[in-house]
Amino acid sequence: MASLAPTLSSTISRLTHLHKPSLHSAITTLKNFRFKQKLSKRIRPFINSSPSSLSAHFSSAQMRSTVGSDDDLVVLGIETSCDDTAAAVVRSNGEILSQVVSSQADLLVQYGGVAPKMAEEAHSKVIDQVVQEALDKANLSESDLSAVAVTIGPGLSLCLRVGVQKARKLAGTYALPIVGVHHMEAHALVARLVQGELQFPFLVLLISGGHNLLILARDLGNYVQLGTTIDDAIGEAYDKTAKWLGLDLRKSGGPAVEDLAREGDANSIKFKVPMKQHKDCNFSYAGLKTQVRLAVESGSINPEIPVSSASSEDRKERANIAASFQRVAVLHLEEKCERAIEWASKIEPSIKHLVVSGGVASNQYVRARLNQIVEKNCLQLVCPPPKLCTDNGVMVAWTGIEHFRMGRFDPPPPTNEPEDAVLDLRPRWPLGEEYTEGRSEARSIRRARIHPSLTSLIQASMQQQS
Ligand code: KG4
Ligand code: ZN
């Protein structure tokens, strides 16, 4: 298998010591004439520096002001970390020029969840088309782009690989710089695209199929993890509830449960709120899932019969379970958010916003309940529109823009990169370090890490340069 310096964000990944140092490739590739031309408007003074001082310039304050003041970047974002193949073109002034998402709904129904190999095949089938459509809708060609941003983790490596290969091919062919993006950071930062005046620091709740995170965003690339899930994420609990209730999974389970819950009595079943006794900001949804399964099994529901064909009595029973589940699942979020607000205000007394993002944040009940908590604590809730909460290319392009402005990017990959090149994929990649008070004693938190956190990499890189 061919090996190459597999970096996507040179300032970040140089520190991972994965393969050959990327600085060498950065320097050689930076000599690429076309790339120089592309960057000339923005960072000419820096690429003319001597090679040995190049890395120091990549995220210097000077670089920041030079690149940051240029508001004419156009970035293509590519996202394939899970089951959606997405691409978008975004301008650095926040204008979304195009957005395309191809979802694997049929596969989800067929396999009752994401099957990595099937998902990889599905991404491979549509990736070219999705990217082309994003460019066409934006009325642009590849050579009009300033950079390509792509999710490199966390996620399923088979799936990440499809997006990263596409991004590298395109960036290599058109001599474009490339930015490797953290999927969860992208979910958080898209709020800054939506609400231009959203300044650091702010608190973030990220709720999706695989993640349940409470993060204090202190600055770009500087995150403190206040809480995480010790087992399942809330989205997974929604999806399983939908499956056990025989709901239509084509739009994913969450929206189906949300719809049916509107017809039910949320107080009819007294599910237990998870982790009441844990005075931390961590989450657990595995127990609630089991409670729902037992409730379904002990009732007269037959999930083989789709809810659309169920008798009105049966439908009511399912709606009651959906509503009761949702009430408790969200109550768990509310309790942990209240504590996180307390903690975050101690660390950063100036916080004014709670950002809620990730697929589950598109849920209206979730938004309404969290809004109450936020108002009670004199903060403001920022929720991106539903299309930007679920996986999308816009959030990746925008995060690419934010880091590109800071000088955190890689030069174009070589045009002749072999298909089987070893790529820098980060399936398990924490966003920030755990807040000490938040360390859970719960044994099921999986600690094995493949990569150091994004925050620690960026901080180490900045220290090296100062
Ligand atoms: O962020 P996302 O699109 O993908 C991941 O990174 O996981 O989140 C997908 C999750 C799924 O579990 C889906 O059921 C859930 O978000 N979801 C919802 C809603 N829309 C999507 N959950 C509850 N209510 C919704 N309206
Ligand atoms: Zn996501």
Automatic annotation (TrEMBL):
Assembly, per entry: Homodimer.
Provide the function of this protein.
Required for the formation of a threonylcarbamoyl group on adenosine at position 37 (t(6)A37) in mitochondrial tRNAs that read codons beginning with adenine. Probably involved in the transfer of the threonylcarbamoyl moiety of threonylcarbamoyl-AMP (TC-AMP) to the N6 group of A37. Involved in mitochondrial genome maintenance.
User: One Gene Ontology cellular component annotation?
Assistant: mitochondrial inner membrane
Q: Which family does it belong to?
A: Belongs to the KAE1 / TsaD family.
Q: Which domain of life is it from?
A: Eukaryota
Which cofactors does it use?
a divalent metal cation
One GO molecular function term of this record is:
metal ion binding
- Please name the GO terms of the biological process aspect recorded for this protein, alphabetically: embryo development ending in seed dormancy; tRNA threonylcarbamoyladenosine modification
Q: Which organism's genome codes for this protein?
A: Olea europaea subsp. europaea
**Bound cofactor: record note:** Binds 1 divalent metal cation per subunit.
Boundaries of every Gcp-like domain copy: 95-398
Listed under catalytic activity are: L-threonylcarbamoyladenylate + adenosine(37) in tRNA = N(6)-L-threonylcarbamoyladenosine(37) in tRNA + AMP + H(+)
What is the protein name stated in its UniProt record? Answer: Glycoprotease 1
Protein's cellular compartments:
Mitochondrion
Database matches in HAMAP family? TsaD
Keywords assigned: Acyltransferase, Metal-binding, Mitochondrion, Transferase, Transit peptide, tRNA processing
